[in-house]
Amino acid sequence: MIAEGRVGLRPADDPVVAAKILLDDEYERLANGALYWVSPEMTQVASAAAETLPEDLRIDETHQPANRGLIVFGEPVGSYIGDMFRDRQIPIAAMTWGSTFYPTKNDPAIGVTFYSSSDYEYVRHVLPRIVGRKPKSAELDRAIRATPEWMWDNETALRYGHTIGDLNLAHEISRTPQDQSVIPWLKVLYSSWLLMTQPGITEVSQERAGRNQQRRDQREGRRNSDVQVVHVHRRHRDAAPTNNQTNDAGDEREFAVRWMVRGHWRNQAYGPNRQLRRPVWINPHIKGPDDKPFKTGNVVHVWDR
Asked: 33-48: per-residue pLDDT in tens?
């Protein structure tokens, strides 16, 4: 694939050398990275938050929850049309990350690899077209066994110091008629990092495989590691929408209507003397007194959770 120019990163001119670098980096992430699983509900929050990441937010290694890792989302964060006959929507639902160097200037960066989940029904559907006849049961079984659950799909790099605005510009420049840019997927990953490290939005628990799975992993030489399971915090998952009626000074205000506040990012001060700024996500909520009419306009908001 490197020799054919079908990769997002090429860390060396020689395709054999470039392949070794990419494979060694990926092995390191998978062998020693932290493991994360994001619930479907939390995936939806991260996807919504990704659309409004601040343009001036700089890519910074302190935003990562770990130096390297594998994250699997409860539902796809993007897709594109591909596969052998370009007749399948390929879902992207997992990513790895780890240190790398930006290929053009050899600057430190975060390398990201995207993984697609396999569709075994598609294998059954497409195999007759490949072999030109109805496949035998043994042939179909071999084809399914040879198809891994996750496929390495593409890769890219996030350069430290670049901003979300730089990513958005790259997305506009690189967009194709099929809209196969990886930038939206990257932004979901970045918003997931920010949300995971923000108190009050997420609940992160550690889960370990059952005893039988641990024994199986030990026999097959696999590493046994805890998985960080990321959910929407109970306060946001179960609580009724807020009707906060105070202004920034803490004074009560009289409101004649209720209205929808969309989910958005807000810069929050932190660190020594509160000199540093970090984006925090504010979940969608309703403001205004319960007994007042709901203000509507030309925008229709879908309140579905």
From this structure: 999 999 998 898 899 8
Mind listing the pLDDT tens digit for each residue in 187-240? 999 999 999 888 777 888 888 888 888 888 888 887 778 899 998 776 655 444
**8-state DSSP, 132:** T
The residues facing 152 across adjacent strands are 115
Separation CA 129–CA 136 (nearest Å): 13
Q: Which helix (H) or strand (E) holds 287?
A: strand 285-287
Give the containing element (helix H, strand E) for 219.
helix 211-219
Q: Calculate the alpha carbon distances from 180 to 41, 100, 116, 176, 295 in Å.
A: 24, 23, 14, 6, 38
What would you measure as the largest C-alpha separation in the chain, in angstroms? 76
Query: What is the three-class DSSP state of 8?
Result: coil
Q: What is the DSSP letter of 58?
A: B
CB distance 34 to 69 below 8 Å: yes
Residue 135 buriedness (CB in 10 A; 0-12 / 13-18 / 19+): middle
Q: What is the 3-state secondary structure (H, E, C) of 16-37?
A: HHHHHHHHHHHHHHHHHCEEEE
pTM of structure = 0.76
- Contacts of residue 212, defined as CB under 8 A and 6 or more positions apart, other chains included, come to none
**How many Cα atoms are found within 13 Å in the side-chain-facing hemisphere of 296?**
5
